[in-house]
Write a structure and sequence with these properties.
about 280 residues; alpha+beta; five-stranded mixed β-sheet; 10 helices; globular
Length: about 280
């Protein structure tokens, strides 16, 4: 968190942060997207890469020798199958960044900070093309101003930096429309809309389940709010809702999805003091 704040790099945590970044792109019609994905990110993080990331982070946050010892000790990972241990190929010290745990996610984001800092430094003073980019875990997205040839050159430089860090990526450049997370971003129209992967049908908790009534009531309202937030306008919202409306109906909810923009909160949520007995 300290590194992210100090370097002002874009590590997105949710769709809202991606949309805020998209809305801040200047001259969208003259920009193009570069979209990339880190191949097998977690298992590809080597001990040397994590060490380099920690050395980089030490410029902005205090990291003690004990911190390092704990971090690397937590990466000693192996699996057992029929009482036989399995360890990572070409790895003699059991080092591995595991998926599905908070520790692994934090290590992953630290490496992302390190790589984004390298990319920002590389393109900070680039004369021919302007680049704004960010990462959501292993999914990266950049908006680049410049000719098609200049953007292809930028694409090659991005690949080179990842290759130097022993990471492989799949990458596409000169795109005007991309599907990223659960939204479609369009530079031509400067609009965004909900995106649902083909064959992915939404399913919700049934209205007659034994969940608390407040939870059941909040489901359709939350879906309504979510779809309104990731839709640029009412027409886009109305064209996107049929599949979600049908999923709600199949789950026994009678709520009708209606476009309604929620104004941004001016104040932080008030923390209620609880009586401690």
């Amino acid at each position: 968190k300290e590194v992210k704040t100090a370097t002002e790099i874009n590590i997105w945590r949710n769709t809202k942060e991606v949309l805020d970044w998209f809305k801040g792109i200047n001259n969208k019609s003259k920009a193009s997207f570069i979209m990339f994905d880190i191949v097998e990110f977690y298992p590809s993080i080597t001990k040397q890469l994590l060490t380099d990331a920690l050395n980089f982070a030490e410029q902005y946050a205090k990291i003690t020798d004990l911190d390092r010892e704990i971090i690397f000790h937590a990466k000693k990972t192996l699996l057992f199958n029929s009482s036989t241990p399995w360890i990572k190929r070409n790895c003699e010290d059991m080092f591995d960044v595991p998926m599905g745990a908070y520790d692994g996610a934090e290590a992953c984001e630290l490496v992302v900070c390190f790589i984004l800092a390298q990319l920002s430094k590389e393109f900070k003073n680039t004369r021919n093309s302007k680049l704004s980019l960010g990462l959501y875990r292993d999914d990266g997205l950049a908006a680049c101003h410049g000719s098609a040839r200049q953007i292809e050159t930028t694409k090659k430089k991005i690949c080179e930096i990842f290759r130097k860090n022993q990471l492989k990526i799949t990458i596409e450049a000169n795109k005007k429309i991309v599907n990223f997370l659960d939204v479609t971003l369009n530079l031509n129209t400067e609009k965004h809309q909900p995106y649902l992967k083909p064959g992915n049908t939404p399913q919700y908790v049934h209205a007659k389940s034994n969940h608390p009534p407040t939870v059941i009531k909040a489901i359709p309202e939350g879906i309504n709010k979510r779809l309104a937030e990731i839709s640029s306008n009412e027409d886009i919202f109305n064209s996107a809702i049929p599949v979600y409306q049908e999923a709600l109906r199949m789950s026994g909810h009678n709520h009708e999805l209606v476009y309604k923009k929620h104004p941004p909160k001016d104040k932080e949520n008030r923390t209620r003091k609880r009586k401690i007995i």
